Each structure stands twice: as structure tokens, then as C-alpha cells.
Amino acid sequence: MADRGRQRREAPRRALIGPLAMLAGGAMVGVMVWRILMLEPAPSGLEQLSQHDRGALERFLDGRVRQ
Which residues are within 8 A (CB) of 49 and not within 5 positions of it... i.e. 6 or more apart? Predict the structure, then answer.
């Protein structure tokens, strides 16, 4: 019965609202960054080698096959 006179010790509401707001903001930023990085359209053109690079690659591959 003596405990009824005591006030309950609770954290103030602002101590709960601040971290929840930061968590929600971080989640929103995470989703936006994920969308930017992962849902971007693929490049339209294919990467092609120059004639010089293509020749060097063919010489390299020929050397590996012969050995």
C-alpha cells in the first residue's frame, strides 16, 4: 500500500520520440540509397574493345592455349 503513493518512474515521451524519428529517417534514407544504386536502368550500349585491345587479348589467349 505504501507503493501507491509513489509516482511511477517513466521516461518522458520526448526520450522515445527522438530515437524513433531518427530510426525512421535512417530507414527512409537507406531505402532511397538502395533505389538509386540498385534500380537504376542498365547501360544501353555494350562496352567494346578497340582493335588494339582486341588484338592484344587474342595474342594473350593464343599464348595461354598453346602452353
Answer: 57
Q: Per the structure, how many domains does the chain have?
A: 1
Distance CA 31, CA 4 (A): 47
**63 part of a folded domain:** no
For the entire predicted model, the pTM comes to: 0.45
Gap between the Cα atoms of 55 and 49, Å rounded = 9
pLDDT digits (tens, 9 = 90+) for 3-58: 565 676 787 777 889 999 999 999 999 999 998 888 766 666 667 788 999 999 99
Place of cell 525512421: 24
| Boundaries of domain holding 22 | 1-40
